[in-house]
Amino acid sequence: MTEPSATGKIAIAAPPEKVYSLVSDPGALAGMAEEYEGHRWVGAAGAVVGAKFRGRNRRGLRRWSTLSTITDADEGKRFAFEVTTVAGLPVARWQYDIEASGDGCVAVESTWDRRPGWLRGPTSLFTGVWKRDDANRANIAATLARLKAAAES
Predict the structure, then answer these.
(1) I need a labelling partner for 143 at 20 to 30 A (CA). Which of 21, 48, 79, 97 fits?
(2) What is the mean pLDDT of the chain?
(3) What superkingdom heads the lineage (predicted)?
(4) ∠22-26-31 over CA atoms, to 5°?
């Protein structure tokens, strides 16, 4: 796999299983993320490989939906999903890697921009984000800080 287009990591004083339970729950993740604000399961009701959920996203007044398919669900270690447009065009991969460390763990959030070149302009216009990698780095830092707070509480 290529290098992620944006990534961040944080040490968390909580067991890997607790952190995993937060990132693998799309509802809990919505409470920590910057643009992602909610979900609805599509033909599934849990975070298992192959399950799909429709994500609701927002940035200011702009709103959009995506379809995500869970690709990795290794409890306490990795949770990941591929995001597409509602029409099935590739958008991104989001991945959370968790590694035990001392009396807690280290969580790494990464994303890969999967949009074909021709789709980047229209999606940037729609979402209002022209420098997606920069925005995702900032979003990841904010999400990880909230994840730390939630896991350590």
Answers:
(1) 48
(2) 95
(3) Bacteria
(4) 70
Helix, strand, coil % over all residues of the chain, rounded to 5:
30, 40, 30
Confirm whether 1 is domain-assigned: no
| Res 86: pLDDT | 84
In this prediction, residue 98 has a pLDDT band, given cuts at 50, 70 and 90, of very high
Annotate 52-64 with b (16+ C-beta within 10 A) or e (fewer).
Answer: bbebbbebeeeeb
User: Residue 92 forms beta bridges with which residues?
Assistant: 83, 113
Length of the chain in terms of residues written: 153
105: containing domain: 6-152
Q: Measured at the alpha carbon of residue 122, what is the angle toward residues 128 and 132, in degrees to the nearest 5?
A: 50
Q: What is the pTM of this model?
A: 0.94
**Interval 49-87: pLDDT, tens:** 999 999 999 999 999 999 999 999 999 999 999 999 989
| Three-class secondary structure of residue 49 per DSSP | coil
Measured CA to CA, the distance from residue 26 to residue 69 in angstroms comes to 12
Number of domains into which the chain is organized: 1
